[in-house]
Amino acid sequence: MPAVQETIDRVRSIDLDQYKYGFETVIEMEKSVRGLSEDVVRFISAKKDEPEWMLEWRLDAYRRWLTMQEPDWARVSYDKIDYNNLYYYAAPKRPAALSLDEIDPEILKTYEKLGIPLREVEVLEGIAPERRVAVDAVFDSVSVATTFKKELSKAGVIFMPISEALREYPDLVRKYLGTVVPVTDNFFATLNSAVFSDGSFVYIPPGVRCPMELSTYFRINERDTGQFERTLIIADKGSYVSYLEGCTAPKRDDNQLHAAVVELVALDDAEIKYSTVQNWYPGDNEGKGGIYNFVTKRGDCRGARSKISWTQVETGSAITWKYPSCILRGDDSRGEFYSIAVSNGMQQVDSGTKMIHLGKNTSSRIISKGISAGRSQNTYRGLVSAHKKAKNARNFTNCDSLLIGDQCGAHTVPYIESKNASAVFEHEATTSKISEDQMFYCQQRGLSNEEATALIVNGFVRDVLQQLPMEFAVEAQKLISISLEGSVG
Amino acid sequence: MADIQNLRSAAETRLSSLFESARQSFASEEKISREEAFKFFEATGLPSRRVEAFKYTDLRAAIEDAAHPAKKPSLDVAKAAVSAATAFAGIEAVRLTFVNGHLIGELSDLDRVPAGVTVTPLNEAMSQGDPLLKQLAPVAQTRENPIYQLNTAFLADGALISVDAGATVETPIHLRFVGTGETAFSTATRVLVTLGEGAEFSFLESHEGQDGVAYQPNDVVDTVIADRANLHHTRLNREGDKAVALSTITARLGAGSNIESVNLVFGGVLSRHQIYLHFAGENATATVNGAAMLGHGRLADSTLLADHAAVGGVSREMFKTVIDGDSTGVFQGKIIVRQAAQKTDGKMKSDCLLLTDDGQMMNKPELEIFADDVACGHGATCGAPDEDLLFYLMARGLPKPIAESLLVQAFVGEAIESVTHEGARDALIGEVEGWLKTRG
């Protein structure tokens, strides 16, 4: 079934030409020398005033990176990246701001334009508090502002740029950094380990439900720079946190590299909800420019009954190479992955997830919707595996894709590996078989097969998306309202 | 990664020297591009798990040493081997018997070939330069496949079966492959089946061999199905317990044509069956099913590629794997829908029953779609037999093993059901029952 007109119009409305965040901020920047060497690694480490062990850690990663080869298994093609022609560090020249008033007004204006609230809105007495979000704003290689720090620290929550955390809580960072994504994990993660600049560090103490949503907003601004952020979130026993991530970049003719690493650790009974609206500049309709997005995201459900949930709305980037994963190590732990990936123009998306079941009674769910239009290629690549000891592991996977026009491609590459009999894995790509019961219920009430399917799948996704703050929600809502009509596996 | 070179394994080195010494015996006028095929193989080597298409079936590790190509056995040896072969024995069919990969004319019904069908032994065709040889390797993707290329390089014997346009052949041809010997040996056979326009034809393949001998069969069946022709294929693998059995079937489908192929696997310490479908003409249909029943540490791999290149193709693939003991099942399926192949309808399914905790199943059902008006789907499930169903049967007084057997039979039966030839279907069901009995 071809896509309906309504769907086509909606996709067009979020078309590349409409990229709203393509402006550039002109401010004085300080950069490392072009290229990558041990000196550049030392320079970055010194800039961040890091402890000695951190520098060694970075150098070790750098030396290993030199021996590694760029992976070529993903279904993306691009010109070879010249790693020696990039700036690995770029920061606004003005000295670090202590309060919001000291931040370069140009940067403030930038975030205002992007709709990111950097001012903490005072809550007046007697008036219902607005929904509040603490923001860490990362501009190229440094964090320029982090809001609501005081209020969060009252609850014991640590939320700060990772470079600051390295100075203030070195032991805590050292205990967890690189334990989920090891230094040698893959080419891009190793590169990130060597040169990562900023990113957020979050620690939620035992039993604390984080009083507000935390978010980081990444902005690439400077030309020829790469952004290498590193995020580390630790949810201690019985805690809960919802974290959001947004990203944009100026429109430019050349490609820029973004290689981030995100590590999540959930201890006993803890829950982490990680949501992303990825809207890097996708390049123009001819495929010129755009961000190369090579990201390693992984969550470790280390404790029993822990839960990690990934939600992603992917609309940007010229190339996306991203597989947010869950290692379900703790007994009864749970992993979720909800994704909507829209590709247009000449974009190439190779994204999916890994659910690695190691503990007993672990369960996971994967819901992925890929929509390709223009001349784009959209691939879902996923792994579900149950270890021998993962008794009663459960997985349900559903991936749908929709093609708009006959110039694009939609691909599905699932790996399903089961190593014990009590594990039950179901993988389906046909929309009509979501749940017979639910379908029957809806159809009994007069909904068509398709309406019922859309309702059920959207219900799944919407659940999570509705928890995004308003700034991100508008775009995401637009996407999920896209009809499922004409879906193919 | 491109520039990492594996050291050549002992088996690879040996294959090179075997090819070198076999070279002189190949007829010079034959139209088989052995040199090219072997060059490709030498460049890639035996695929290890680093090669994506062999991720779960590591041939480099499984083939420690390459066995010497088997010589044509004496008639007495062949007779003795065939007398022990029982698969499809009860079916009224025209038999072509291959022992150790060589066609044994005396044990074949070459003089009883049904009207409308021509059978030419491959060796005869090669020495005469039969024009039909041009139709070998009808699916382009096999050029990238080391198993297929190895078969081409070492091709020893086989047959060309050609069915006239419009002919409806009632009696099936039974290709009976038997392996026998004291020590390891390898075989490479190729059968080409061509169907003229509107023809209808069935053939059966059975593969049996001696237990305890590490032989290495590599069998290829190429089929070229003209417009509106209809081909039925039933295959049974009962290779010996030490065999590393490699097999491939290719099909090039003309407009409105149809293929139905079922493969039932029991044997081989390792078996890999590859299916290549190329939908060249419009509105062609294919039903490809497979079932594997594995025990005793075996590995069975079914790898399928359905390439829809024309409008309105329909493909249905269903694979069932039953795993007992520490065995491994592998299913890799890929449906490609090219830009021109609008209105394609492709459904692929792989289900697995794990009877013990030691078994494992690897599924990789892939879709690659470039057309926007298609309905494609795939499903994969994996798990132990349903407790509720077992309980239902046991509550009616059946002991657990019998209840489980019934469930397994029903599970596998779904894949066998599509065999149109009644005798062949019953024979396969009998084989399944036999396996369940010995399992006890």
Descriptive notes:
The complex is a heterodimer of chains A (489) and B (440). Chain A has one domain (5-435). In chain A, 22% of the residues lie in helices and 32% in strands. Chain A is built from eleven helices and 24 strands. Chain A has helices at residues 5-13, 38-47, 52-66, 105-114, 149-154, 162-168, 170-176, 187-195, 436-444, 449-465, 470-480; strands at 29-31, 90-92, 133-139, 142-146, 158-161, 200-204, 213-219, 230-235, 240-248, 255-258, 261-266, 271-278, 290-301, 307-314, 319-322, 325-328, 334-343, 348-351, 354-357, 363-372, 377-386, 394-403, 409-418, 424-428. The longest helix of chain A has 17 residues, at 449-465. Residues 121-130, 430-434 and 480-489 of chain A have low confidence and may be disordered. Chain B is α/β, with parallel strands linked by helices and 440 residues long. Chain B has nine helices and 19 strands. Chain B has helices spanning 10-22, 34-44, 59-62, 75-83, 122-128, 146-154, 387-395, 400-416, 422-439, and strands spanning 94-99, 102-103, 117-121, 157-163, 173-179, 186-195, 200-209, 216-225, 230-238, 244-253, 258-265, 270-279, 285-294, 299-308, 314-323, 328-337, 345-354, 360-369, 375-383. In chain B, the strands form two sheets. Chain B has a ten-stranded mixed sheet with strand order 2-1-5-7-9-11-13-15-17-19, covered by helices on one side. In chain B, strands 3-4-6-8-10-12-14-16-18 form a nine-stranded mixed sheet. The N and C termini of chain B lie far apart (46 Å). The chains are: A alpha/beta (489), B alpha/beta (440). At the A-B interface, strand 23 and strand 24 of A face strand 17, strand 18 and strand 19 of B. Strand 24 of chain A pairs antiparallel with strand 19 (375-383) of chain B, so a sheet runs across the interface.
